């Protein structure tokens, strides 16, 4: 019984650490565009992918340490995360251009859903990625709902700070860690 309680505490502390890592990467993410914009001669989507590096590093660590994946699988998950970020930004911009001003949350929902879905599809194909759809549902739900914070960022005219990135990255990182742990636990 004591071992089960200690195990639960370790899991909770581990998830709190993952959430803290997500908040940290979420705070760093909006600070990168001014730096990345100074790189001349690179296409726009490549620059957007570079902005995703902090969160991609967190995903790399999670996939490498949480599941029984080789380093190349963790690197693949990080690259998939950067691709998902580019697709999420493009989806949000596309919806934002077609929606009325009152529907800014819809662009965030579309971007959040797009990003988290591409991440889940890419990571589930890794050697020890969970293939069970139920394992990915918390990540899909939290990533989609947290994407609606884009409307708050737009309403507050946030540029170098954001409410979207810390919440989205922390919630998706925790849900990813939980999904990856489902593979190890019977």
Give your account of this protein's structure.
The chain has 186 residues and is mainly α. 78% of the residues lie in helices and 0% in strands. It has one domain (2-184). The protein has nine helices and no strands. The longest helix has 28 residues, at 71-98. The model is unreliable at 1-6 (pLDDT under 50).
Give a quick precis of the structure.
The chain is mostly helical and 186 residues long. Helices cover 78% and strands 0% of the residues.
Keywords summarizing the entry:
186 residues, mainly alpha, 9 helices, globular, disordered N terminus
Helix percentage range = over 70%
Task: Give Rg in angstroms.
Answer: 17 Å
Query: How many domains make up the coordinates?
Result: 1
Category by helix and strand content: mainly alpha
Instruction: Let me know the average pLDDT.
Output: 85
Give the count of helical stretches: 9
Low-confidence stretches: 1-6
Give the distance, in angstroms, between the N- and C-terminal Cα atoms: 18 Å
Which geometry do the CA atoms define? Answer: globular
How many DSSP E strands? 0
Please write the string of helix (H) and strand (E) elements: HHHHHHHHH
Major sheet size, sense and barrel closure: none
Tell me what portion of residues adopts beta-strand conformation: under 5%
């Amino acid at each position: 019984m004591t071992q089960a309680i200690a195990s639960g505490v370790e899991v909770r502390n581990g998830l709190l650490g993952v959430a803290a890592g997500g908040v940290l990467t979420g705070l760093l993410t909006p600070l990168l565009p001014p730096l990345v914009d100074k790189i001349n001669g690179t296409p726009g989507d490549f620059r957007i992918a570079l902005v995703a590096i902090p969160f991609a590093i967190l995903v790399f660590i999670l996939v490498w340490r949480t599941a029984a994946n080789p380093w190349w699988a963790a690197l693949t998950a990080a690259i998939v995360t950067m691709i998902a970020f580019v697709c999420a930004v493009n989806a949000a911009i596309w919806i934002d251009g077609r929606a009325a001003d009152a529907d800014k949350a819809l662009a965030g929902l579309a971007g959040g859903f797009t990003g988290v879905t591409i991440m889940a599809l890419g990571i589930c194909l890794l050697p020890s990625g969970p293939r069970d759809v139920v394992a990915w549902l918390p990540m899909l739900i939290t990533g989609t709902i947290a994407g609606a914070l884009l409307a708050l960022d737009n309403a507050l005219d946030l540029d170098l700070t954001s409410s979207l990135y810390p919440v989205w990255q922390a919630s998706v990182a925790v849900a990813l860690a939980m999904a990856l742990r489902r593979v190890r636990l019977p």
